[in-house]
Amino acid sequence: MMPAIKQIAIIGMGLIGGSLGLAIKASQGEKVEVTGIDTNELSMLKAKQCGAADRITADYKTGIKSADMIFVCTPVLQIATLIKEIAPHLKPGAILTDTGSTKTYLIQEITAVLPPGVHYVPGHPMAGREKSGIEAAVDTLFYDKWYILTPARDGDAAAVEAVRQVISWIGARVTEMNAAEHDWCTALISHVPHIGAAALVNLLMYLQDQENSIKLAGGGFRDTTRIASSNADMWADICMTNAEPIADSLDKFSQIVSQVAAAVRQGDRESIHKFFSSAKQRRDELLLLEQAASEQPLTNEHL
Amino acid sequence: MMPAIKQIAIIGMGLIGGSLGLAIKASQGEKVEVTGIDTNELSMLKAKQCGAADRITADYKTGIKSADMIFVCTPVLQIATLIKEIAPHLKPGAILTDTGSTKTYLIQEITAVLPPGVHYVPGHPMAGREKSGIEAAVDTLFYDKWYILTPARDGDAAAVEAVRQVISWIGARVTEMNAAEHDWCTALISHVPHIGAAALVNLLMYLQDQENSIKLAGGGFRDTTRIASSNADMWADICMTNAEPIADSLDKFSQIVSQVAAAVRQGDRESIHKFFSSAKQRRDELLLLEQAASEQPLTNEHL
């Protein structure tokens, strides 16, 4: 039977944690009590002020002790350490979940320290904004977005169902995936494009006359390179926690780029043309798949 | 003395040629006669209908014979061939210019066939839209955009001045650059990012379960990969006409990506962090330069 979720603790009241609190309160009102936990006093005050949490505390232990479900929304490298700290203080039957963007690493670390009777359901919401912090939190952040869960095969089905229910409250679409598959896909579809964008900006160190040549960017430079201005700490952590899929995919990417360079050098127009037309074709195919997926009814319509 | 420009011929009435005609007519009205030249009958009819040209013809020779200035706005690989064909029919003193995005190759090809008394001023407007064709032409396409000229050092100064004047009519900002520098900068700042985006899409052939994994793209897939759906023919031609700068820059790009892969594999967080933070810093610096450049008064305010 699915446990009733009356008390939710959110650790890390930034963009994700704050938006989660706002969305849960907007959907459930007084039916669910949200405790916001953060060590940053200002973030906590703002979280309370904007209604992302009913109560706030900097003390993990008291914040989580009566929670039915705990969302850990801190930067990815802090998640495992933090869970090791709080694990002994979780109540029996508590459901632990996180919003970290790499999963295999976290599952290994967390499973090792989980007390008996506490269930861990790894999660990854496909939601974000350019801005970060509690100031950027909105109750619509997850609406109509995919929310991936990567539960263990032998995990507790009722715990997964409970997390799915909370996800339905925030209006997201839930889907399940194997954790390793998740990490490889994320590397290909998100991490490598991000690293590629930063590499393209770093490549501009070879511009001889930066002042004059920036005019050639055609005004779109701000937009096309925006991704490269993201948080260096966060991205270094992502690379550290999803190393093999990222390194392997970067090598594949580098190979593709080298092959194009060779074709260009040889004046092999046929190969170059094929490269561009297959990119167009692959994009069109993936857009169709994406559209088909997004036309599936929302999770909360199922419930 | 700068020659008076009363008759302008535009060869290739697509997005660029059509927008050029519209902008010249909007600025100069009856003072300048625009002849639109294209082999596509429908494009010509539309060009006439929307007012991008006063008269239209499919016959290059009659279209250009009395023109004071000729803009060649066809795809880049057709420019040189076309100019070879029309060169003997240009009137003495005519000023020839083009809008091709690679310059060294064109200058070599065109200089070789230019009749005496005809001046060639290579150009490259930093303007574009996602859509193409005369249907997408607008008279504001060049407004406040950079328009690069790469004239020869020993070229005719009055001819350059005349092209600058027409560029001021269409509201663009003009700047001059060495042709080789232009091509290297364009490779780094425009061609390689474009090829990189197509390579990122092609990398997705390694996705095992495309249907499920596209959900991980987080809804931004359409936007972030839009550039990869561009015209394969046009981009193959760009690669063919700017081969050395593109191949060399792609190799440098591939090297940067491989270095990141190695750092990720070694768990070298310091190098990874430095990679991301230097991208952010370089972007910020270039944005400042871009802003400073765009705050210079518009060309037409000088005249």
Mean pLDDT of chain A, to the nearest integer, reads 92
CATH uppermost class of the largest domain in chain A = Alpha Beta
CATH architecture of the largest domain in chain A: 3-Layer(aba) Sandwich
SSE pattern of chain A:
EHEHEHEHEHEEHEHHHHHHH
Strand order of the largest sheet of chain A: 3-2-1-4-5-6-7-8
CATH superfamily of the largest domain in chain A: NAD(P)-binding Rossmann-like Domain
Oligomeric assembly = homodimer
Protein model, in words:
Two copies of one chain form a homodimer. Helix content of chain A is 52%, strand content 12%. Chain A has helices spanning 15-28, 41-50, 60-64, 76-86, 104-111, 157-169, 179-203, 210-213, 221-224, 232-241, 243-265, 269-294, 299-302; strands at 7-11, 33-37, 55-57, 69-72, 95-98, 119-125, 146-149, 173-176. The longest helix of chain A is centred in the C-terminal third of the chain and has 26 residues, at 269-294. In chain A, helix 7 crosses helix 11 (243-265). Chain A is built from 13 helices and eight strands. Chain A folds into two domains: 7-177, Rossmann fold (3-Layer(aba) Sandwich); 182-292, Orthogonal Bundle (6-phosphogluconate dehydrogenase C-terminal fold). With 303 residues, chain A is of the alpha/beta class. The two termini of chain A are 15 Å apart. Chain A is elongated. Chain A has an eight-stranded mixed beta sheet with strand order 3-2-1-4-5-6-7-8, sandwiched between helices. The interface between A and B is large, with 100 and 100 residues.
